[in-house]
Amino acid sequence: MENLSKEVIVYKLQAQQNKPTLGYLRAVAAKDGDSYIELDALNFCPSKKIFVTRDYEEIDNKFKEFELFKVTVIESMYDSEDTRPERNCKYVTKASEASTLKPREMVEIIVNTLPNPNEMTIGISKVPSTSYIYINDDGTCYGPFKWDQNEGDENNITLRKIDSPMPGRQLAGGNIYSAKFEDLNKHVLHCSLEEGERFYFENLTDLHNDTHLLTTDYSSDEDIVNNFIKIAKDIGFNDKKVDLASIEAKIKKFPRYNHKSFTEKLNKLKDISDTHLLFESEVIDGFSKFLRTELGEKVTKKYIDKNEDNYLSNIRDNYRGQLEDEFRKNNGELENLQEKIEFNKQELIDLGKEIEKANHIKVNSDVIDNLKVNEDLDQKVTQKKEQLIELNEQVKPLLEKYKKLSSLNELEKKIEEATNEYKIEVKRQGEIEKETSSLKALFNEHEDKLRNRLLELKPFVEAINGNIGLSNKEISKNVSQHVTSIDMSNSTAQDILKYIDHSMRKEDRNFSILDIINITVTLQQSFICFLAGLPGGGKTTLARLVAKIYGIQQQRFLEIPVARSWTGQKDLIGFFNPISNKFQSSSTGLYEFLYALSEEDKLIDLPVPISLVLLDEANLSPLEHYWSSFMGLTDPKESKKLTLGDNQIQIPENLRFIATINYDSTTEYLSPRLIDRSPIIVLEPNSITTSIGKDIDEEHPLEMPIPYEIMEKCFGKTKNRPEFIENEYRIYGKVKKVLEERNGELGKPIIISSRKEIAIKQYCNRARPLMREFSIDDKLSALDYAVLQMILPLLRGHGKNFSKRLSRLREVLSEEELDRSVDYLDTIISNGNADLHTYDFFCW
């Protein structure tokens, strides 16, 4: 009898006495699908232990106490003679079956207080069992953290932030995750063990992608300071004097640092700076108080008496040099500021003359920049004035403190001279302010004249640029069309299909009835569908023919030829003109068409037919660019609105897009996200045959157009999501398994999204009964069409391994007799083998 094995998460207990090669493990949890279950006496073994039959000392040396690891166990073939519950083990293993538990698989939750980020040490009652941990602080979880056992201290551990990449959403530097414990219950595994109760988070990838999990800044003072040192180097900040205001202003000019996370760290940096300055102030204040005591005065007097000559000489030399440097620097800077102001003044006058010569149409932006420079110069002068005041305040107490030790006549003369120079500079500053005020007045005067002149020229500029804009009456387009009243109790979907078949043959186009069902259902259920194939295959003709048969060719069908140079919405619809403050529509006429449909949609209970827009040669330019405004409307929504400038256009449910595409060196590839949202109908060159010479019946009793609601009821999606029938479910499951299997020998996997699966179910739900009625021998025709135009377009890969995946897919499709899909898959494989094992659905 074969013993089944299973993988169990455990931690070590102890070896048997006198037999170190034998021992016991405590079973904690086991894998159950995508999650874990706790193992106990009922679902595992009465003893809740596992007996190690060989080399237990290897496990004892490899793993720490209470450290979780994985081990593969099998059921014991022999009953234990020892009937004691703690010794009677149902499962056995050996040391070679043990392996380390990956940090992302399970993370223990420690109940404790989140420590200060500057210390990161917490007390523990039991050692954590995983290399990563989370902290549960009064119902809020923080983490993840690494941890180290403090040497010689079994009651405390030191936390460390994780600096390596983690599964799920990534954290910015210095941040950790946080969330309420109750919001994360679905990720928690509770284990009631004899050694103590423990909680674990399962699967870090799912946990870190949970929307309840928020990011929290947990930077230490050292982290914040080092972070700003790095940022200062990145932005080239090399000022010798550290001024947080200057740092903040310079850093905010860089967009990547101008965000909430940076602001929080900057505020913490300011707090650190304030704390440092407060400590420095307290130290200085403490020394000052000591020096004012009797003992301090004795110490000071003794020191001064001993070093009187040297000290006075140093004081005079230092202050003389300091004052001379400060005044020399200030005078130089003030002279430079005066020169800049004079230069800017002359430049402003010259620019004013140029403005007058140009009839005040254009204002040189340098004038505004120069005024800003003047304002900056004013700020610098003010700062220098404040620095002079601070210097005077620093000099005064020093002079008073040491005036009894030596005559400071020479120093006082210097101060008097500096004061006089300061008064002169203050006077010059007043003159500069007067000049600045006059320049501002001159600029305001020219600005008013320029504004008036621009208002006068605005109508002419709008006329030249064509930005006059259109009124609602001018942009209106007549899309109203009478619909045929149909009694659905007497008419069915089959009647509509027979009419379409009759009309096709009448137009000398001979499609099979199954192709007609496929095109009708696909068009009705898809916001956009693609007609693909070689040039001359009849793609554009078929789109026009559908509009004609539906009876909407004149009012409700818009054909748009796509140009090679289209880059965005402005080429397809138009753009908002900021000069005219109006929306400028493009020459395609789509804006007027959508506006008319939006106005029509406001009329309540008005039956209307379907509306079609044809994008001819759609992939001459990337659809993801010029059609991006409609990308989000492909999924079902209660309200579909398109924002164009200040206007919002309601996109009606009856609007559909048909896009014709071809693949050669002049076209663009469809992106995976666009293929995921739309079916692709491939027209072979001979798929449309003529019916010339065939007898055509008399006029069909049905008349078009018919209301959109009837077409939707017969061929559209259902509100309740349908399911596959038994055979479809089985075949789809096999196809999905082959494509999505993650096996390196099969090349890259092909993922079928939930959106695509729902679309296939909706299609089969409508097409299946109709196709069975017209072709009872082919019960899987609907699924065959769905695989061909919804799943096979996803195929794109290269290499011999990927060809093996396609061969397996062909085996499934051939076995289930999905002939259309098999034929096209053969084409993909054949062309791919000839093209250096490069396989693509668009391979014609």
Summed up:
With about 850 residues, this protein is an alpha+beta fold.
What does this structure look like?
The protein is α+β, with helices and mostly antiparallel strands. The protein has six domains: 5-100; 106-217, no CATH class; 221-290; 307-465, no CATH class; 493-715, Rossmann fold (3-Layer(aba) Sandwich); 726-840, no CATH class. 45% of the residues lie in helices and 18% in strands. The chain is built from 24 helices and 27 strands. β19 and β20 form a beta hairpin. The radius of gyration is 41 Å and the shape is flat. The model is unreliable at 360-364 and 470-474 (pLDDT under 50).
Structural features:
24 helices; alpha+beta; 844 residues
The mean pLDDT is 81
Main sheet record? 9 strands, mixed
Q: Pairing-aware structural class of the strands and helices?
A: alpha+beta
Strand content: 15-25%
* Overall strand count: 27
CATH topology of the largest domain: Rossmann fold
The shape is flat
Q: What percentage of residues falls in helices of 4 or more residues?
A: 40-55%
How many H/I helical runs?
Answer: 24
CATH superfamily of the largest domain: P-loop containing nucleotide triphosphate hydrolases
For the termini, the CA-CA separation is 57 Å
| CATH architectural designation of the largest domain | 3-Layer(aba) Sandwich
Query: How many individual domains?
Result: 6
Low-pLDDT runs: 360-364, 470-474
CATH structural class of the largest domain: Alpha Beta
Instruction: Give the radius of gyration.
Output: 41 Å
Keywords: Coiled coil
Protein name: AAA+ ATPase domain-containing protein
InterPro entries: P-loop_NTPase
Coiled coil: 320-428
